[in-house]
Design goal:
The protein has about 280 residues and is α+β, with helices and mostly antiparallel strands. Helices cover about 60% and strands about 10% of the residues. The chain has 3 domains: about 1-100, no CATH class; about 100-135, no CATH class; about 135-275, no CATH class. The chain has helices at about 20, 30-40, 80-90, 105-120, 135-180, 180-190, 195-230, 240-265, 270-275; strands at about 25-30, 50, 55-60, 65-70, 70, 75-80. A 4-stranded mixed sheet has the order 2-3-1-6.
């Protein structure tokens, strides 16, 4: 249970009178999920619901909000602030959710008025940091952008390290292949294959190895996203352009780290290569 001072444009089936707040009446407005689960098929207005060991009379139901990032936003009850203070006491941290109307200028003026009132009531002297927080949509968006930017940078760093390590592994595998197939290279050169043919052969093998690894990774990513979306409420999905980007990067890694082994194979002396065991 959480109190909420909320001026909203959402429709409510019935609203309790302001007098309910003044006398700390045990009334509540519930979310759509509670109304559906506890009062399926009947009108919840006037019914009783128990929360925090207290019985409340339902006087309204909020419209369905839905879920955000898999979190249900309809599982809540709203009670008068005076009722909450009577039940829990006045020494509680409160979060008031307020929606102002009239434009941005009025909204900013409302913030200034609230800030001045809270500083006066909390005896915060000029020049000292506030011991309360006023969060707006812009501040939360800015916070989310900073968090997502940091996570994106970490993901890019981890992906870059993984790509370099994977490329080095591919290069070593191709170098081993060149060493083990030296005689094969010599036979191909003896029957007319040019250095370009040998270069394309090993470069193609390197690209194919990286592409196979990239396709396996993309398939695992799609599978994880599908599993999350199927078995949880988290709205996971994989964009097609991300999969195409993965294929492109895999090809680039194969070309970059496959050039050296391919050039080494192409530059082998045919005579020396034919003598190899």
């Amino acid at each position: 249970m959480a109190p909420s001072g909320q001026a909203s444009t959402q429709s409510v089936q019935n609203r309790h009178r302001p007098r309910s707040s003044r006398i700390a009446a045990p009334v509540t407005v519930i979310g759509d999920k509670l109304a559906t689960e506890f009062f399926a098929g009947i009108n919840p207005i006037g019914k009783t619901i128990r929360a925090a060991n207290t019985e409340f009379t339902v006087v309204g139901v909020f419209d369905k909000i839905g879920s955000v990032l898999g979190q249900d936003r309809d599982n809540f009850v709203v009670i008068p602030l005076s009722t909450f203070l009577r039940i829990r006491g006045s020494r509680q941290s409160l979060i008031l959710q307020i929606k102002a109307t009239g434009g941005r200028q009025i909204f900013e003026q409302a913030q200034d008025d609230v800030r001045m009132t809270l500083r006066a009531r909390r005896h915060v002297p000029p020049g000292r940091d506030e011991d309360f927080f006023i969060g707006t949509a812009d501040s939360y968006i800015t916070l989310w952008e900073s968090i997502s930017g940091g996570l994106f940078a970490v993901f890019v760093m981890v992906s870059s390290i993984s790509s370099v390590v994977g490329g080095i592994v591919i290069m070593n595998v191709m170098l081993v292949a060149v060493t083990e197939r030296t005689k094969e290279i010599g036979v191909r050169r003896a029957v007319g294959a040019t250095q370009s043919d040998i270069l394309r052969q090993f470069l193609t093998e390197s690209i194919l190895q990286c592409l196979m690894g990239g396709l396996v990774g993309i398939a695992i990513g799609f599978g994880c996203a599908l599993a999350l979306r199927t078995f949880t409420a988290f709205p996971a999905s994989v964009q097609i352009w991300v999969a195409l980007l993965g294929v492109f990067l895999s090809s680039g890694i194969g070309i970059f780290f496959g050039i050296y082994p391919a050039m080494r194979a192409a530059r082998l002396d045919p005579v020396v290569a034919l003598r190899a065991d």
